[in-house]
Every structure is written in C-alpha cells, then in structure tokens.
Amino acid sequence: MNTTQTDRTDRTVTQKPTEVRMSFQPKAAFEPLAPSTQVESWSLQSIEHLFDLPFNDLMFKAQGVHREHFSPNEVQLSSLLSIKTGGCPEDCGYCPQSAHYDTGVEASKLLDVQAVTAAALEAKKNGASRFCMGAAWRELNDRDVEKVAQLISAVKAMELETCCTLGMLSQDQAKALKGAGLDYYNHNLDTAPEIYGDIISTRVYEDRLKTLASVRSAGMNVCSGGIVGMGESRAQRAGLIHQLANLGPYPESVPINHLVHVEGTPLANTKPLDPMEFVRTIAVARITMPKAHVRLSAGRQEMGEAVQAMCFLAGANSIFYGDKLLTTGNPEWERDQALFAKLGIQTV
Hints:
37% of the residues lie in helices and 15% in strands. The chain has helices at residues 5-9, 44-51, 55-69, 113-125, 142-156, 171-180, 196-199, 205-217, 234-245, 275-288, 305-313, 333-343; strands at residues 74-84, 130-135, 161-165, 184-186, 221-223, 226-228, 253-258, 293-296, 318-321, 324-325, 328-329, 346-347. α11 links the parallel β8 (293-296) and β9. It starts with a helix and ends with a strand. By secondary structure, it is of the alpha/beta class. Strands 1, 2, 3, 4, 5, 6, 7, 8, 9 and 12 form a 10-stranded parallel beta sheet that branches. A two-stranded antiparallel sheet has the order 10-11.
C-alpha cells in the first residue's frame, strides 16, 4: 500500500493471468478475500490488453471469472444515506456537494441517531444487507469521531453490515470506527493517477492511498473504486483499474460509478461515455479483482435496462438501491425489482 506511484505503474507481471474455464456450477459459498490468496499482480499493459479484447471475448472471460467465485444470478443490495450533506471544501470537479460550485445543494448538519436508524430500518425492510453512510467532509475531524461511532453502533445493532465514507482518516480514527462496528470504509481512487490533478486540486493521490492504508491497518474491509466518463481515455481507465487491482490486497468492494452530469460542476458538459466502454470497465474490474463485489453505482438511472443487464453479465454483482445516492438520482426500488424479475436475479 505504501508503494510509490511510479513503482506501481512500472510493476511487472509476476504471474500471467490464467485462462478462464467456464463453470456453470458456482461455488456454494463465497469465501471472504484474504491477503494470502492474492498471488497475482497485473501490469498496466496486461490490463490495457483486456480492455482491447473483442467485446464478446471480454464478456465471456469476465462471466467465466464471475462464475468461479459467485453465484451468477445474485446481486447484493446496499443502501446509501447522506448523513451530512453539502459544504465540502474539496473541489472535486464531478461533485455537487462541493462548496466551490453553485449546484443548489444546501449544507446540512450531521443527522442524529434517530434519523439514521429510521432510514436503516427502511433499507433493511426493502432487502438491503449493507447500510452505507456518507458525509461531505474533506476529512473526519476528531470531534466527530464519537458521533459517527454512535451511528455505526446503532446500525450494526440492527444486524446490517455497516459502511462509511467520511473523507480522509488517520490510523487512530480508523481504529475507533472499527471498534464501533464498522465493516467497510469507502474511499474511492476516482481516476488514474496521471489525470487526478485535472479533476481535484485540493488533495493529492497519495492522500487517498494513505487513507486506504489506515483502513487496512485497522482490520476493516476496503471499498474503493472510481468514476468513469470524466473525459478520460481508455488507457486512463485501465490506469484506474491497475491501481485498484494492485492495492495488495485489492478492495473487497469495488464501486464503478458513471459520471452524473450535474449543472454547476466543471464536468457538467463532459461528452457522455459510450455505454459499451462502461461495460468494458465492469468486465475488466471483474477479471482483475475476481473475489471483489463489483458494484454498479452512480449513473444507473441514465443507463437503461439493457446496459445494466450487460453490466451484470460482465460481473457486476452489487448495487445501491433507493431513489437517491447522496444528492443525485437513482432508479426507484420498484424499477430495480422489475428488472431483476426480468433477468431472473435474486437479491442478497
């Protein structure tokens, strides 16, 4: 995790990716990812090669890897609640919660335990197995650690998996959240390191890697992915996956977000990404991080059923459900249920 960016980019393959054998008898149970199971590293060149495969070959390969480790017709449901909205001092070019941009999002205070547990109860009734809480902070302040720990403990007592995204963490803060019952911590790498400065100027890439190291050292599961469609090239999408796949171990949960074009943000008028490129990104994430839950995250509302179905075929096996993701729209619960019925997908 402490490897420098240059070393990570130049890493060579120590073991070539194995050929996929299609198996239509998935394992009965999913075995949690353990660092000792990761014996393979991926060079940037090998990941670029995956992106360049003919579409059908890439999909076939990804589905084969998926069936080796997961039931092919199950999707894990997570629910996401903004526990502190707006007013973030960061200048992330995609984010409507940044105080730098006029997007109509008003800043709010941290929600109390009663409001959070009510939302968690509703999520559980609708089938969520993981409840995620997000706060629009650059970093978690020590004065807020106890308040957030109370929220985590309350949700954990409801027999839900817990996840938070609160900005940068220190090692001591990560340990405190782990002690409160936090199962996952989300901190996305966002994009490839070489274009990170074009998207965000208020922190550097190494800050994100340090936070992920703190999460790992505390014994928590890592949730980390990125956003595609921010004007990056295919090679730069490969660079993002290269970073994630070689974290050592790679994240247990990998959210792949499609940029949501929000008026008032610098990226509002970015040319939309070709849907097939998004599906390719899902497939390459599945192949390079075979035991991770690959989450189809922001941007689903604009995708349509056919693109989402291809993403599930490519290896996505987790979604956020509910009509809002922090501040942007998401498909309604009924629409998701109807799509799953059409596809024969069970939710877990």
